[in-house]
Design a protein that fits this description.
2 domains, 22 strands, 4 helices, about 325 residues, disordered N terminus
Length: about 325
């Protein structure tokens, strides 16, 4: 009985080792990934990965990506595998059927292959705001081998994005940090937003004395409003929104300009506009102007990148940070 017990123990250990070897034999089956997205993770934006798999024995059968927080619509694998040709161009070849259900995305290979590089896109959901997310990749072969690899944890920003907000002189010239939209006076009144307006756009080429105003952003309560020839409707709440103009700060998510720089949560947390003015004049795209803003009540801080400033229109994209 004692001998039989020893034999059984040896068999159990041997079976366990054989089973485990299918999950950890990285000399036969290998995988790696590259996070292609450089920007800090932001809700609504993608995290892009390239997932590479290769096996020395047999053929690949399936790849999966499991995320710690279920992604927004659009999350999943591409159906194609990519390689770079001699001219440096990326060429995609259809190799898999793909599906995403809940937190798991699957690519089932429909061609015989022993090496692929798949692209995986994770669209950051609202549920991940301010939290950390992780992606776990897994590959399997038709012979039953499998291998897994997990990413680090990525901290998702708490900021909100708004792109290509258009403001026009004496028309859609009122902007709310709360709604992140521009309005005409009629729209403000129709939607009871008279206490929600933080910025007023106005274009005026020069002051009576010859100074340059150009494209300006003003508070509804700034004393500079009369000097710039802009009359704020009497029913609008008079606020003093703090503003500071900057040059050559190019958040790539908003500007598309490389090399890549970004304004993140820490920048907003450490932002000090105590001595800032409540208006900005002479905004230009030639200096890649941007503006840091803080609402009168301190609830919102924002970074506005000026995308376009022509004739009597101003277009900007923004990140908004909520302090409380």
């Amino acid at each position: 009985m004692q001998y039989l017990s020893k034999v059984l123990n040896v068999l159990i250990v041997s079976i366990a080792l054989i089973s485990c070897s299918k999950d950890i034999d990285d000399s036969i089956l290998t995988n790696d990934f590259l996070k292609k997205t450089e920007a800090p993770p932001v809700v609504g934006e993608p995290l892009d990965f390239a997932y590479a798999i290769a096996t020395k024995q047999g053929k690949l059968s399936k790849a999966t990506a499991t995320v710690s927080i279920e992604g927004a619509p659009g999350t999943g694998f591409e159906t194609r595998s990519y390689y770079t040709n001699s001219a440096g161009a990326e060429i995609g070849i259809a190799v898999a059927d793909t599906a995403t259900k809940g937190s798991v995305s699957t690519a089932t290979f429909k061609v015989d292959t022993n090496a692929v590089t798949l692209r995986f896109k994770y669209i950051i959901p609202e549920a991940a705001r301010g939290k950390t997310v992780r992606v776990s990749f897994r590959a399997e072969t038709k012979e039953g081998l499998s291998i897994t690899l997990s990413s680090e944890e990525y901290k998702v920003s708490t900021v909100d994005l708004a792109r290509n907000v258009v403001m026009t002189n004496n028309n859609a010239c009122y902007f709310s940090l709360e709604t992140m939209k521009s309005y005409t006076e009629a729209q403000v009144n129709a939607n009871n937003l008279a206490n929600k307006i933080d910025l007023v756009y106005h274009f005026k080429a020069t002051t009576p004395g010859g100074g340059v105003y150009g494209h300006s952003l003003l508070s509804t309560g700034t004393a500079s409003v009369p000097l710039n020839g802009k009359t704020i409707p009497a029913n609008f709440e008079k606020k003093s929104t703090k503003m500071e103009k900057k040059a050559f700060i190019n958040d790539m998510l908003l500007s598309g300009i490389v090399p890549s720089t970004y304004v993140d949560d820490t920048d907003f947390q450490t932002l000090n506009l105590n001595n800032a003015a409540d208006y900005i004049v002479d905004l230009r795209t030639t200096s890649r102007n941007s503006v840091f803003v803080e609402s009168a009540d301190g609830k919102y801080r924002a970074y506005l990148y000026i995308n376009n400033a022509t004739a009597t229109n101003l277009t900007f994209s923004m990140k908004r940070y909520t302090t409380k």
